[in-house]
UniProtKB/TrEMBL annotation:
Keywords for the protein's UniProt record, in alphabetical order: Exonuclease, Hydrolase, Ligase, Nuclease
InterPro entries registered for this protein in UniProt: MBL (IPR050698), RibonucZ/Hydroxyglut_hydro (IPR036866), Xnuc_lig_assoc (IPR026360)
Name of this chain's protein: Ligase-associated DNA damage response exonuclease
Lineage top rank: taxon: Bacteria
Amino acid sequence: MARRADQILFPTDSGLYCPDGDFYIDPLTPVPRALVTHGHSDHARPGHGAVLATRQTLEIMAIRYGEDFTAQKQVAEGPLRLGKVTVSFHPAGHILGSAQILITPDDGPRILNSGDYCRTPNPVCLPWEPVDCDVFITEATFGLPVFRHPDPLAEARRLLASMAEFPERPHLVGVYALGKAQRLIALVRQAGHQEPIALHGALQRLCDYHIAQGIDLGPLVPATDAKGAQLVLAPPSAFASPWVQRFRDPVLSYASGWMTVRARARQRGVELPLVISDHVDWPQLTATIRELSPQEVWITHGAEDGLMRWCAMEGVPARPLRLVGYGDEPE
């Protein structure tokens, strides 16, 4: 008799655990073997005995934590046999190197852990790939109907329009160092801005890595040497530090799906909110569940109750995993 999904993968204090393969997915604490979906620090932590991930995720973790972030690294290439299950990694469309992880047991349902994923085309990573599964584990970061993200290229054009309207004011945009910074650069290049873009020092190494991976980001200069650069990217935390005081009368901006919530923009003192997200919005989230048509949906974090209610109305069995420790990457 085939076993239930919750006998093959289940939540623990350290995160989702698969006893048949003796591994955890995106564990919250150090474990003997971790399978990591992507390099954001709320999913990729140092100190594990062994880490299995895409080559780019392993290299990103080494940049962020040092080469000794784990005792053993293994690149996920093709289906791999771990104990009594087969695992495979599939593009998630979230950031460079991000992956969904499919667990195929010998005697049970196929379980797909999507990690963080996005279906809007992203110029700095591989597109999301649909994967047949029986159980779909999804995030619900923007799991409420209010979240309907606009075209990110149109948001980049809004930024350039503001720069044209206020040519004497530097535009400071808050972006996460991994993924959002590089995506916004690629978008403004696509929108026609070919002038040098200034970077806060915290963004430089990961931008250099993307360039080494063949992603053209155009001319970039350090913010400390940005004589006359009108567009400056920095981590959001820089806006609350003395660093920002070097710029005279800046237009403060922030690129995030959370900028849909105007109260968040006001709380941060953001003059130009840019709704650019690396996660699925509500229409994409619900469309994905319909398209994959899984027998069951598990929800890892975000607006769990809203998605639970939608699944109930659609007749899709669903359960919240209520895992803590996931969400936006710490700044």
